[in-house]
Amino acid sequence: MDSTGDTKFITLVKSAERFHFLLECMVALPRDPLVPWKPEVIRYWEHFADQIGRPVRPVSIPVSVSGLKVRAVSVRPTIVSRITVSDRNIVLQRPALLPMERSD
Question: How far does Cα 57 stand from its chain's mean position?
Fold first, then answer.
């Protein structure tokens, strides 16, 4: 990515940080029905994010993956406002958290 792209991305992130309390955020979780899933995982998928938002119609997906099932949820602004942007590699980097801030 060139520096212009980097600048646009940084501007977008800063705008999102400033105005995220006004916005709902759609989260989509795809599932391939041809891949076997355990019943409890399918139940999780069916209720994914139902405590923080409401089900919405997912965006259109390409015909090449039209067999996928997609669960989409619009997350409430009060929840979105609690999200903190963090630029890190989630596999290799961990945030420094106090014991009371850790969830697992």
Answer: 15
